[in-house]
């Protein structure tokens, strides 16, 4: 007789679903989907050991589990906390979690310049989205910001350290995707910064993916810098004959011209298929690509608007048909 598979009952903001044991609160929330999914600035599912650095994914655990229903005394990082059977979590419905996220946003912006009008990441930047939602109108900091000059860290990549939030995604991507990592986080605390080793340049195959995983505009593609605001471009799914990667990419068109090439990403802005440097930086000729059709940008962002179709799911509450729906009155600040 086959043993019945054990699942955990998990609830976030009043929506309940059965999930696999061993996954995190963030992953369980993503299975339910919708607006209750906590934002994540450092967690990145395709990168092992990512998460636990930025605290944007904080949630309140109002019931620990069926066995031990006591609430957790502090907000927890949902990307690093495992689900328990019967666990109840509050995100949008928790004033404490929203206040916590506001504080984290303020912290992340302490040194970050408000240079969205000239930043290539504007329109697809997670910190910009957080700032709109939770940021203060004015800074309360009296100290001078840390400042760095933009730096070439290889033939293709520009580092603007002023914008870096030290999420370490680029370090993990270089570790896990390339043959040899040539950069990392140097120094500690207030002095921590992203830098290459002495006389080293980021130029190995697949290193361009660090640009895609960077949640802010700290790492930008030198072949596409300042070419266009992203909302004036049209993303197209395209494929090419490539011996190094799958050759499946998104090419961003301005008129007849290819402005930039990126990997394909899902609704959480996570790369589905890593692409090689040749596809990303050297294939800017339309003759080199087979166009499959327009790319729908699923993530809620300025770029998902006005391109071919409106996102039907902007107000979507549930992805999972088995989940129970949150009532409007439970939501805070919507
Ligand atoms: S450069 Fe970007 S990806 Fe790398 S640590 Fe800084 S913010 Fe994260
Ligand atoms: S996404 Fe969880 S701590 Fe950064």
TrEMBL record:
PROSITE patterns per record: 2FE2S_FER_2, 4FE4S_HC3
Annotated ranges, domain 4Fe-4S His(Cys)3-ligated-type: 96-135
Major location (coarse): membrane
Keyword Membrane part of the UniProt annotation: yes
Gene3D superfamilies for the chain: 3.10.20.740, 3.30.70.20
Gene Ontology MF term list: 2 iron, 2 sulfur cluster binding; 4 iron, 4 sulfur cluster binding; metal ion binding; oxidoreductase activity
Any one GO cellular component localisation term in the record: membrane
Keywords: 2Fe-2S, 4Fe-4S, Iron, Iron-sulfur, Membrane, Metal-binding, NAD, Translocase
Pfam families from the UniProt entry: Fer2_4 (PF13510), Fer4_Nqo3 (PF22117), NADH-G_4Fe-4S_3 (PF10588)
SUPFAM superfamilies: 2Fe-2S ferredoxin-like (SSF54292), 4Fe-4S ferredoxins (SSF54862)
Family: Belongs to the complex I 75 kDa subunit family.
Designated name of the protein: NADH-quinone oxidoreductase subunit G
Source organism of the structure: Frigoriflavimonas asaccharolytica
